[in-house]
Design brief:
Layout lengths: L2 H25 L3 H22 L2 H11 L6 H18 L11 H13 L33 H18 L7 H27 L4 H21 L2 H18 L7 H22 L9 H8 L36 H4 L8 H49 L9 H44 L1 E3 L1 H18 L3 E6 L4 E3 H22 L3 H6 L6 E10 L2 E8 L6 H10 L5 H5 L3 H5 L23 H10 L3 E7 L3 E9 L5 E8 L2 E6 L3 E6 L5 E3 L2 E6 L2 E7 H4 L15 E7 L2 E7 L1 E8 L14 E7 L2 E6 L1 H8 L2 H4 L15 E5 L3 H13 L3 E5 L2 H10 L4 E4 L8 H10 L8 E5 L4 H10 L3 E4 L4 H16 L4
Parallel strand pairs: 2-4, 9-18, 13-15, 19-20, 19-21, 21-22, 22-23
Antiparallel strand pairs: 1-3, 4-5, 5-7, 6-7, 8-9, 8-16, 10-14, 11-12, 12-13, 14-15, 17-18
Helix pairs in contact: 1-2, 1-4, 2-3, 2-6, 3-4, 3-5, 3-6, 4-5, 7-8, 7-10, 8-9, 9-10, 9-11, 13-14, 15-16, 16-21, 26-27
């Protein structure tokens, strides 16, 4: 018996008792209602029995279904016999002899013979098709030559009555997928049958046809499409004879099979349009049982089978044309290879990056527009001041003003169009991203349902009683995540049964139910999926875990004594750590939980453990919805920009004036919790000098990595972005603390590997990273002029440059700086851009007109970070353009480098 036949057999056995019970209830109804009730209960039983080859059960069920007018005792006896026969079929002996077929057939014949003369035929069930052909009046059936023929006609009409109304046994969201799968399989069968006509000896091709028909038979039976199941079953039997060498694939056979495909397509079309399956398959069934028979002449009936392939006359049907909306039903679903969806997601990611670059370009054009407006205003003011604007409107200056105004208007219109288009593109890309992400989503039920059998088998093996409870199985997440999550989840479920749930006797002694419970739960929380594995077993004992760690040499006794409960629970993730007392094929080999943690980490997720002795253990996995496109928090660290995975970010806040110092570490107090704070620049190996500006301008980003919570000190938080993370490639794959790279605007950002950061944070040197910072010193004393309107930043720069060995003169704005520069000579100039009176651009231009400052290094330090601002600075004559908040070390090295280049001959 094949897998699909076994499933149908089990379904038949499960449905037989309620069907027989419904038939007994039908006997108590009035005579007019008794017939439909018997037909509705027993015709499906007869059809299923026929498909399984139980002819005696099928015949007796059909006779009982037609026995509304027979003596009640005979029908009750038939129902009792059917009940005994179905029970016997479920407990057949090894020889296969389960019931006495001849006795069942004889009882069916007696029941048919006792139908009352002239009694009306039992009506078909609701929704079944009614054959309009006139029928001869019923006559008593006797054991003569005509009895079998009449019985066959009755059986067929009853059988077709149960097959005409399709009541899907599938979930609503699976019906379209089932119909599409059948359509695709029929299309493939048509191609293979034509190939089979040319290559009849190709055994693999014959097997492929057999497999497709077998799948059609099984899936149609599972979906409740009985007429399709019956036809596919007979076609499968025919191909089975071909496969066994009992028949040849001649033209006549291929024509019959192609005609069968046409009939199956017609049945499928009726099912898709939810019309009655009013396709007459009687002649096709007759010829599938014996392909040597000739086709019967078409009856004068409105129900006909489709013509054979090549026929010019289309199939005729009595049903009305499909409703207006049914045309779209054929396109409800489309099965696509996942590789194509994955490629589509990559292209969406590139579109997201391109949109970011376009946004930066639009912002730059906005800056350019503002520059043009300011330039026109200044030129107009100069012309008015000179008194020549009204005098000569055709002067070159006035013409230039008009041209500039026209350019401004064109730029303004262009900017508005770009900004509007960018808004529409942003919305479209966002919706496209969301829709493509949905294509990749599958229910986590695919995993959960697998583990039910795992728990059952494992509990039996261990002598335990365990039940599984599922919640949120309909929660969807990325298909890639589902596939990669299968093994880690399986290990956690096995651990829950092996380590968590106690033996029934132990649970009874602890006043707990003998049957333990493993609960699997999934839920979406914002941009994350929470998956929990919870048991009501013995739980984790923190003291025993610490003692085991000391025994295995993982901890010193004093370290174990100082462990908090969460830290003790985290020991189970140490490589080689196991609490199993003996090694088995289930557990105890010291390999597992560390692998689970690493696997979850690679999925950009985290795992948390909570347990109570005697009450159970709860493991929570936090995972992103998808790995294709993720969100990051961009931050400035030193002089670089980095990206922090947003799924791990808890919060970001302004850094306090000082941290709480405990030992050599700095901590930030959040409520009752002390969170260790680490200098991210130091951990990444970037420059660690103080910022230009007040240190309170820095920010602390609180992140969660596994069971750890850390505060990362950054210079500035720049906002969140949707990005596509790219690999660094083989040359940089070993780079520390780097999970990849991404592009935001025109900048390439390092994506920080927070798991690696957490590992490095445990090293003592990292805790001391927030101590005093060493500053580079200038190799030669030089005079530097500073122009900065902010008192805090001006004083900070002055102190840093002075400590680096420079002689510094600080001024409040460009006008003051220019006056001092004309009186004194400086070796370098540092200037802000936005200042009252004279800004940094004008100061730089004025200095460059002085021959003494033609080659003096000028560095702009400003918060204006748009590309157009930097270009304007370089156009004005600046040698370097630094963006606030910047690192003092960067400014010092920049000035040193420019001075060294100036002193080098030939540069």
């Amino acid at each position: 018996m094949t897998a699909s036949s076994r499933e149908l057999f089990e379904l038949f056995l499960a449905l037989a008792p309620p069907r027989l019970a419904a038939a007994r209830l039908g006997l108590d109804l009035e005579l007019g209602e008794r017939g439909p009730a018997l037909v509705a209960a027993l015709v499906p039983l007869a059809v299923d029995a026929t498909l399984l080859g139980a002819e005696g059960v099928a015949a007796l069920a059909r006779a009982a279904a037609a026995g509304a007018d027979a003596p009640r005792g005979l029908v009750e006896a038939a129902l009792a016999t059917l009940e005994t026969a179905c029970e016997a079929l479920g407990h057949g002996d090894a020889s296969g002899a389960r019931v006495d077929e001849s006795a069942l057939l004889a009882q069916a014949e007696v029941l048919r013979a006792r139908h009352a003369p002239g009694a009306p035929r039992p009506p078909p069930p609701d929704g079944a098709a009614v054959d309009p052909r006139p029928r001869p009046p019923s006559v008593p059936l006797a054991k003569d030559a005509t009895a079998p023929a009449r019985a066959t006609d009755t059986d067929r009409s009853l059988e077709e009555a149960g097959e005409s109304a399709w009541e899907p046994t599938l979930a609503d969201d699976m019906i379209a997928a089932f119909l599409d799968e059948c359509g695709e399989r029929l299309d493939g069968l048509g191609e293979r049958l034509l190939e089979l006509e040319e290559r009849s000896s190709d055994r693999e091709l014959v097997s492929a046809v057999f497999r497709d028909l077998h799948t059609l038979k099984g899936s149609s039976a599972f979906a409740g499409l009985k007429k399709m199941n019956r036809v596919a079953h007979l076609a499968e039997d025919l191909i089975g004879e071909l496969r066994d060498g009992k028949r040849q694939a001649d033209r006549r056979l291929i024509d019959l099979l192609l005609e069968t495909l046409d009939v199956l397509r017609t049945i499928l079309d009726c099912a898709r349009a939810r019309r009655p399956i009013d396709v007459d398959v009687s002649d096709l069934v007759r010829r599938l049982r014996d392909p040597n028979l000739a086709p019967a002449a078409p009856p004068s009936s409105t129900r006909q089978s489709p013509p054979p392939v090549g026929s010019a006359e289309p199939a005729r049907q009595t049903s009305a044309p499909p409703p207006a909306g049914s045309a779209t039903a054929t396109q409800a679903t489309l099965r696509i290879d996942f590789a194509k969806v994955d490629l589509l997601m990559n292209l969406v990611g590139e579109a997201v990056l391109s949109r970011g670059r376009l946004a930066a370009a639009v912002e730059a054009q906005g800056g350019l527009l503002r520059e043009v407006v300011q330039t026109r205003h200044r030129l107009h003011a100069a012309v008015v001041a000179a008194g020549s604007a009204e005098a000569d409107r055709r002067s070159p200056t006035s013409i230039a003003l008009e041209d500039l105004q026209r350019i401004e208007r064109v730029l303004h219109e262009s900017y508005d169009d770009l900004d509007s288009g960018l808004g529409g593109l942003t919305l479209a890309v966002s919706q496209l991203r969301d829709q493509v992400m949905k294509l990749r989503m599958v229910p986590i039920a695919r995993l959960f349902t697998k583990y039910q059998r795992t728990v059952r088998e494992l509990s039996n093996k261990l002598g335990k009683e365990v039940k599984v409870e599922l919640a949120g199985a309909e929660t969807e997440l990325d298909k890639v995540l589902v596939e990669r999550l299968e093994d880690p989840l399986l290990h956690l479920v096995r651990n829950a049964v092996d380590h968590g749930i106690e033996l029934p006797e132990e649970r009874a002694m602890a006043q707990k139910p003998r049957t333990g419970t493993v609960r699997l739960t999934a839920a979406q929380r914002g941009g994350q999926i929470l998956v929990t594995i919870e048991d009501d077993g013995a739980g984790l004992d923190a003291a025993k875990l610490a003692a085991k760690a000391v025994e295995k040499g993982l901890l010193r006794p004093d370290e174990a004594a100082a462990l908090a409960e969460p830290e003790a629970f985290a020991l189970i993730f140490r490589p080689g750590f196991s609490t199993a007392t003996q090694i088995s094929d289930v557990s105890g080999r010291g390999v597992g939980m560390d692998v689970v943690r690493d696997a979850v980490g690679k999925l950009k997720g985290a795992i948390h453990v909570d347990s109570r002795v005697g009450r159970g253990t709860r493991l929570e996995l936090r995972l992103p919805l998808t790995l294709a496109i993720t969100q990051v928090l961009a931050a400035r660290v030193g002089s670089e920009l980095v990206a922090l995975p947003l799924d791990s970010v808890v919060s970001a806040q302004q850094a306090p004036g000082s941290f709480e110092v405990i030992g050599e570490g700095a901590f930030l107090r959040l409520g009752d919790e002390l969170v260790p704070v680490l200098d991210l620049a130091a951990l990444l190996g970037l420059d660690r000098d103080a910022d230009i500006g007040d240190l309170t301008d820095s920010s602390v980003v609180i992140v969660e990595v596994g069971t750890d919570r850390l505060g990362l000190l950054v210079r500035q938080v720049l906002g969140r972005h949707d990005v596509v993370i790219k690999s660094l490639g083989p040359l940089l794959s070993a780079a520390p603390c780097a999970a990849g790279a991404t592009v935001i605007g025109d900048r390439v950002l390092l994506v920080v590997d927070l798991a690696d950061i957490a590992t490095r944070a445990r090293q003592p040197a990292a805790a001391a990273g927030l101590a005093a910072r060493a500053r580079p010193k200038a190799t030669a004393r030089a005079r530097v002029l500073i122009a900065e309107d902010s008192d805090v930043i001006r004083e900070t720069i002055r102190r840093e440059l002075t400590e680096a060995g420079f002689e510094v003169r600080a001024t409040r704005d460009g006008t003051e700086a220019l006056a001092i520069a004309r009186r004194e000579l400086f070796d370098a100039v540092s200037t802000d851009v936005m200042m009252p009176g004279m800004d940094g651009y004008d100061l730089t231009r004025a200095l460059r007109t002085d021959p003494r400052y033609a080659h003096v290094p000028i560095v702009m330090v400003t918060s204006k970070d748009a590309r157009i601002d930097a270009l304007r600075g370089y156009d004005a004559g600046a040698d370097a353009y630094l963006t606030k908040p910047s690192d003092a070390g960067v400014l010092i090295r920049t000035i040193d480098g420019l001075l060294a280049k100036l002193r080098t001959p030939g540069t």
